[in-house]
Design brief:
The complex is a heterodimer of chains A (328) and B (219). Chain A has two domains: 189 residues, no CATH class; 82 residues, no CATH class. In chain A, 70% of the residues lie in helices and 7% in strands. Chain A contains ten helices and four strands. Chain B is globular. In chain B, a hairpin with a 5-residue loop joins β1 and β2. In chain B, 32% of the residues lie in helices and 26% in strands. The chains are: A alpha+beta (328), B alpha/beta (219). Chains A and B meet through α1 and α7 of A and α1, α2, α3 and α4 of B. Chain B: It is a peripheral membrane protein. Chain B: Belongs to the ABC transporter superfamily.
């Protein structure tokens, strides 16, 4: 009797424990992670990281190219060569005045004797008296980039009055730099496009690989009466989270690299190496467009993973009823 | 409830696996579907379960012509049919309780609304103590009973069982058979596909024998 009551008590206890366990959170329809799922996260993280780095590099090159273009096209130079009987100072003043009157010219600054001597110092040494040499003199014309002056008209206005003057609007340089910058950016965009295509294909195939292990789940859900949109939703949600996890990790790693470079670049500012690097690549800051691009890429890769799983489920479900059964 | 008229099935350009099958499964009926291995029992069950379409003939399920049932209608009709697969098809990452509750869960029902029903059913099939165990830990017989419970949770009008005693010893086979008979008494039509003659001899029920692609029915 005692034994029976004790057993009854145990049963009740077991039942209570059972009920408590029933109330725990239900297992997800799609299992949380398996090896293929973890590999998918890793693959997505690596591909996102590489894509973001490529995107950052292209942004950097594009920004630097724009800076090159702007800095050079911001100025033009009037050069006056010395001539027999030419009053150089008067000619400089006249040319400067003519240039200054053109709309689109912010200022016209004469490079004075000392500055000209300093310019020539690397070749002719210090203590140079430029009056002893027939040295051409320069006027630097600063231009409003938004509405540049009519250089042909300026040239036509200066040359008749000062035959030894010539206006250099740096067009040749600017054109060459623009062409080079555009080529660099085009190559960068092509590399980025290839990188994105590789990312898309890798993500699609890795997702399909991870989905292959879930065929039996789709089948069971289908046979217990789950609607196709329910099954597709479950998988889409699961793979969206998986894709976002991987993409966010890759994106975060890329942003970390950008920040480290930016910090390194600012820390080494004013050293000869850093100055060279800055002259060539700008200051290693990718700017808000770059960070926005990283965020966008993370979202796109997450969405792509979800879409691939959705398509795989839908294809699987449409095939499920026409596949060969086991003989029985 | 389910009616076949001159149904034939072939895969691709191959020979007909099922030929001129005509049968009627009435409500609350109990029948065995038998025949040698490879005779097409599973294929016939798949036709009954609407996971295959016949290449010829007419199938009427719950008064609807199979050929006119749309893809969107299938899940709703399938909920009226319970299936026990030969290989159980339990999801290994879910407990016995979660596996049995799956058909209700996929319909979007809240767990609180079916918790008692699932627990009661699991006790009825003798799995009250194995509710929170994952399938890999269950024995063959326990898996079989879990699969049966999952097929029954939505109180289907018909239960299709593919070799339900194929993996269990004779005493457990008898126990499972009693379970099916009890279920039939409660109003569910039952079709058991088996080649176990010993099992069929225990019940005086209709026998449908498949051989050479044709079906003979012994009432």
């Amino acid at each position: 009797m005692t034994d029976l009551s004790a057993r009854h008590g145990e049963d009740q206890h077991a039942e209570r424990a059972g009920t408590q366990r029933v109330q725990r959170k239900m297992a997800p329809i799609v299992p949380a992670q398996n090896i293929a799922g973890r590999a998918l996260v890793l693959v997505i993280a690596i591909m996102t990281f590489l894509s973001c780095l490529t995107f950052g590099a292209v942004t950097l090159v594009r920004d630097t190219a724009t800076v090159w273009e702007n800095q050079i096209s911001r100025e033009a130079t009037i050069q006056i060569k010395p001539m027999e009987g030419l009053d150089m100072e008067a000619a400089l003043a006249q040319a400067s005045q003519i240039a200054g009157e053109f709309p689109g010219v912010k200022s016209a600054r004469i490079v004075d004797r000392d500055a000209t001597a300093r310019l020539l110092e690397p070749w002719l040494g210090s203590g140079l008296n430029i009056d002893e040499l027939p040295v051409p003199r320069l006027i630097i014309v600063t231009i409003d980039e938004t509405s540049p002056p009519d250089f042909a008209a300026m040239r036509a206005a200066i040359t008749p009055k000062l035959p030894s003057a010539s206006l250099d609007d740096h067009r040749t340089w600017v054109d060459r730099l623009v062409a080079m910058a555009r080529t660099t950016v085009t190559i960068g965009i092509a590399v980025l496009a290839l990188m994105l295509a590789a990312t898309v294909l890798t993500v699609v195939f890795a997702t399909r690989g991870a989905m292959a292990g879930n065929g039996h789940i789709i089948e069971v859900l289908h046979f217990v009466g789950a609607e196709a949109r329910f099954i597709a939703r479950e998988f889409r949600h699961h793979f969206l989270v998986t894709g976002m996890k991987g993409a966010a990790a890759g994106g975060a790693a890329a942003v970390f690299i950008f920040i480290v470079f930016s910090w390194w670049s600012s820390r080494n500012m004013a050293t000869p190496q850093a100055d060279q690097a800055t002259a060539l690549f700008g200051n290693f800051a990718i700017g808000s467009a770059g960070y926005l691009g990283v965020v966008l890429m993370v979202l796109v890769i997450g969405a792509l993973t979800a879409a691939t799983s959705h398509v795989t489920v839908v294809t699987y479900l449409s095939d499920i009823d026409v596949r060969q059964p086991d003989a029985g | 409830m389910i009616r076949f008229e001159n149904v034939g099935l072939r895969y691709g350009m191959g020979p007909e696996i099922l030929r001129d099958i005509s049968l009627h499964i009435p409500e609350r009926s109990f029948q065995f579907l038998s025949g040698p291995s490879g005779a097409g029992k599973t294929t016939l069950l798949r036709l009954l379960f609407m996971s295959l379409k016949p290449t010829r003939g007419l199938i009427t399920i719950f008064g609807k012509d199979r050929s006119r049932i749309s893809r969107a209608e299938l899940p709703h009709l399938r909920r009226r049919i319970g299936v026990v697969f030969q290989d159980f098809r339990l999801l290994d990452h879910m407990t016995t309780y979660e596996n049995v509750a799956l058909p209700l869960r996929v319909r979007g029902r809240e767990e609180a609304s079916y918790r008692t029903d699932v627990t009661e059913l699991l006790k009825w099939v003798g799995l009250g103590e194995r509710m929170h165990v994952l399938p890999p830990v269950l024995s063959g017989g326990e898996k079989q009973r879990a699969a049966i419970a999952r097929a029954l949770i939505e109180q289907p009008e018909i239960l299709l069982a593919d070799e339900p005693t194929g993996n269990v010893d004779p005493p457990l086979a008898r126990r499972l058979l009693r379970l099916f008979i009890e279920l039939n008494r409660l109003g569910t039509a039952v079709v058991i596909a088996t080649h176990d003659l010993g099992l069929m001899e225990q019940v005086d029920a209709r026998r449908m024998i498949l051989a050479g692609g044709r079906l003979d029915i012994y009432d």
